[in-house]
């Protein structure tokens, strides 16, 4: 059965039940190493032109799975077998929390988008530590996306991020400070420059301390919202760079509802998918210009095809991520995007993904 046929049935299910079903299937798959290996063989595109090294870490291809899919960090080995070049788990908060009441996840099929107001539902960092101990480490890099608990006041937010870093320091290949989810009240206020300065000072101090202890400074990235003005974005990026941030993820979901047609368009939450594509590409380009390409950017928002990925890369992204695209295009999305990227590179006579970064910036 093609994914398009499967999707028709799948989209009849409530979105969160469908997600839970997929997570169960992934757990079953990763428990069987023979099955996982078969998937890995079928889904992985092995081509040195796709390989890239960022922060000293090797990514076999630039197509990652974005945060919010493996919220509890318990299916990343199965996701690695789907051909992704890296997987970002979380958002994880220090204490487990249930998130917002259901329903909190909505498909917007006419717009090829999703609205979610999940609210950082996750099992917490202690559970995540146990998963990392038990599960086989995949050969691809794993990013760990950190957040703060809903009831932690913003003034103490840095404690939550520091706890995440300390508990999971050796489990992640990079860490993400998520201050851009629209579904935790007040979280985005941490993007304001004075709050951001003090937050990043605390977090990077902790990273440096842990770096000394473990002999390795793990990269810390900042994930930004697409709903900032050009001036705000410039100020935030300059602040983050001067504080010593290692990379930026652009972008999280948007509060904008421009041009939507689907029935659920008025639902509260963050919008992802096709309607976000242009805006997030614009952000990548602007960040690349502000930073003069000196720190890696992960581009995310509305990537469904190799062409969409290539657009983000040419705008300045060294790596890209997908989430909504996988819901609409299916579990082969990493393989499809990687194959399409190779065709585009060939067409332009470019020898590797690295050489395409920022060509249109
Ligand atoms: C259901 C859902 C849950 C998400 N949860 C998180 C999250 O916990 N942390 C986070 O940083 N981003 C989260 N995101 C945002 C994605 O990581 C990504 O930034 C955004 O969806 C844009 O990419 P896309 O258009 O490819 O989906 C979530 C997105 C969706 C659709």
Describe this structure as you would to a colleague.
The chain is α/β, with parallel strands linked by helices and 361 residues long. The chain has one domain (3-356): Aldolase class I (TIM Barrel). Helix content is 42%, strand content 15%. The strands form three sheets. The protein has an eight-stranded parallel β-barrel, surrounded by six helices. Strands 5-6-11 form a three-stranded antiparallel β-sheet, with no helix packed on it. It has a two-stranded antiparallel sheet with strand order 1-2. Strand 5 and strand 6 (113-116) form a beta hairpin. The model has no long low-confidence stretch (mean pLDDT 97). Flavin mononucleotide (FMN) binds at residues 66-68, 71, 90-91, 105, 114, 116, 118, 120, 145, 178, 181, 223, 252-253, 272-273, 276, 300-303, 322-325.
């Amino acid at each position: 059965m093609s994914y398009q046929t499967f999707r028709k049935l799948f989209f009849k299910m409530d979105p969160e039940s469908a997600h839970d079903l997929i997570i169960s299937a992934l757990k079953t798959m990763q428990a069987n190493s023979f099955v996982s290996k078969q998937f890995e063989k079928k889904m992985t595109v092995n081509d040195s032109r796709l390989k890239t090294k960022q922060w000293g870490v090797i990514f076999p291809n630039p197509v990652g799975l974005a945060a919010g899919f493996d919220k509890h960090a318990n299916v990343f080995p199965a996701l690695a077998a789907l051909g992704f070049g890296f997987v970002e788990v979380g958002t994880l908060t220090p204490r487990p929390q249930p998130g917002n009441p259901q329903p909190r996840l909505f498909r917007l099929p006419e717009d090829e988008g999703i609205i979610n107001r999940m609210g950082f539902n996750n099992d917490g960092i202690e559970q995540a530590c146990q998963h990392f101990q038990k599960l086989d480490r995949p050969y691809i890099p794993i990013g760990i996306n950190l957040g703060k608990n809903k009831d932690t006041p913003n003034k103490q937010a840095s404690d939550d991020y520091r706890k995440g870093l300390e508990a999971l320091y050796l489990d992640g290949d990079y860490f993400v400070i998520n201050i851009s989810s629209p579904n935790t009240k007040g979280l985005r206020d941490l993007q304001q420059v004075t709050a951001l300065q003090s937050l990043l000072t605390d977090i990077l101090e902790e990273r440096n301390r842990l770096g000394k202890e473990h002999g390795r400074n793990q990269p810390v990235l900042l994930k930004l919202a697409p709903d900032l003005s050009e001036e705000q974005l410039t100020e935030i990026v300059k602040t983050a760079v001067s504080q010593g941030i290692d990379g930026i993820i652009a972008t999280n979901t948007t509060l904008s509802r421009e041009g939507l047609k689907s029935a659920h368009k008025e639902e509260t939450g963050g919008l992802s998918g096709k309607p976000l594509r242009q805006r997030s590409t614009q952000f990548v380009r602007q960040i690349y210009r502000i930073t003069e390409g000196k720190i890696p950017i992960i581009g995310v928002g509305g990537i469904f095809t190799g062409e969409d990925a290539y657009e983000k890369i040419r705008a300045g992204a060294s790596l890209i991520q997908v989430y909504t695209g996988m819901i609409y295009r299916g579990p082969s999305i990493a393989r499809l995007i990687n194959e399409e990227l190779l065709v585009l590179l060939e067409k332009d006579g470019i020898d590797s993904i690295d050489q395409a970064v920022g060509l249109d910036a």
